[in-house]
Design goal:
The chain has about 375 residues and is an alpha+beta fold. It has 2 domains: about 170 residues, Gcn5-related N-acetyltransferase (GNAT) (Aminopeptidase); about 160 residues, Aminopeptidase, CATH 3.40.630.30. Helix content is about 25%, strand content about 35%. The strands form 2 sheets. Strands 1, 3, 4, 5, 6, 7, 8, 9, 10, 11, 13, 14 and 15 form a 13-stranded mixed sheet that branches. A two-stranded antiparallel ribbon has the order 2-12. β3 and β4 form a beta hairpin.
Length: about 375
């Protein structure tokens, strides 16, 4: 009998405890906090979320969630998924329950919900996860196929000195309700060409503005060229209502980084890094689309976002950049830190797939 089962809302207290007890390890030790409502991050997304838990004698010691939605793949509308929230205590890793039953669960879910492929992100330094999930092992006939799509960075732009947006070719302003159709059309055209793109043609932007706590029209930024054409957009979203990153410890070189950063922050009157036990105050850039991968457009947007949120108590904001991303020059001169990840496409063992379209994907880091 499989020790895996679907989680219910009655499991929320144990799931919150599991997230706090299984932190992200490294020189910076972080715990993801999802209080007060563990399921809120799933509820705010369109589609279906199925959290699967590993249970032994009434104790939850492992979790993995499958999220399924409508999307784009090779320009076709289809069902795609995301695999996230993988957390396992030592007892679950020792019993190998998750690894033994993960493949069959994914197989059944893909068949039942008509999913062509899934996305998942794994921290590049997480050798344990890469070895357990990605590395092909003889005898594991049900092992899902992992295909590396991108190496990417979660790039944090820290608020340090004050900045004033420089005059340039592109004019940036905050959106109004009248701008939403044009912004949605820009995102729709972009995501149709992306592997695992979102269905902005089905009201994805309007849904996010209505259902993501803290996401507002005035938090959307638009960039226009001299002819008044919309050439770029992004949205500011503070996730604290649904998830926070709590610092548990600074280790190794991060102790010196914190000491130096705090000294600089004191001089510049910027927020110091949180002490252990406290959480980062940050926001994401999401709903981002840049015409022709032009870094000057992203630069104009980032400068305005930075200027508008400087002095509001935020430590940093975070955005997605691929390895070798043509947009990377947009961040030149900003104080930034990068956490490296691998982005994989995942398919069941019975229908493995290795080839996917080039270019950007529809991965939304803010939801991971």
């Amino acid at each position: 009998m499989s020790p895996l089962r679907r989680a219910t809302r009655e499991d929320a207290p144990q799931l919150l405890d599991l997230f706090g007890a299984v932190p992200m390890q490294g020189e910076l030790v972080l715990a993801t906090r999802r209080e007060p409502d563990f399921f809120r991050l799933y509820d705010m997304q369109r589609g279906l979320a199925e959290p699967w838990v590993h249970e032994v004698e009434g104790q939850l010691d492992g979790l993995g969630t499958i999220l399924v939605r409508d999307g784009w793949l090779e320009g076709r509308a289809c069902r795609v998924g995301y695999l996230g929230d993988l957390r396992t205590r030592f007892s679950a890793r020792r019993s190998r329950g998750l690894s033994r039953f993960y493949g069959p669960v994914l197989e059944e879910t893909a068949e039942r919900l008509g999913v062509e492929a899934f996305l998942t992100a794994v921290m590049a330094s997480n050798a344990t996860a890469l070895n357990a999930l990605v590395k092909r092992k003889p005898g594991r006939v049900s092992q899902p196929r992992y295909t590396l799509l991108r190496r990417f960075g979660s790039v944090s732009v820290h608020f340090t000195r004050r900045r004033t947006p420089r005059p340039g070719r592109y004019r940036v302003r905050r959106a109004t309700p009248e701008d939403i159709p044009a912004m949605a059309a820009r995102l729709d055209a972009d995501h149709r060409a992306r592997a695992f793109g979102y269905r902005y043609d089905l009201g994805e932007l309007e849904h996010r503005l209505a259902d993501w706590p803290g996401l507002r029209v005035e938090g959307c930024y638009l960039a226009f060229d001299p002819d008044g054409t919309l050439v770029g957009c992004t949205s500011v979203w503070d996730p604290q209502a649904v998830k926070r990153y709590q610092v548990l410890a600074y280790r190794g070189s991060m102790r010196w980084v914190k000491w130096g950063y705090d000294a600089m922050a004191t001089v510049l009157r910027a927020p110091r890094l949180p002490a252990p036990g406290n959480a980062f105050n940050y926001f994401y850039l999401c709903n981002t689309s840049i015409q022709d991968e032009n870094p000057d457009i992203l630069r104009a947007l980032v400068e305005q976002v930075y200027a508008d949120h400087q002095g509001q108590g935020y430590h940093f904001f975070t955005l997605y950049l691929d390895e070798g991303d043509p947009l990377q020059p947009a961040l030149k001169g900003f104080f930034q830190r990068r956490l490296d990840f691998h982005l994989y496409a995942v398919t069941p063992a019975s229908r493995p797939r290795d080839h996917y379209p080039e270019g950007r994907t529809g991965f939304e880091m803010a939801l991971a």
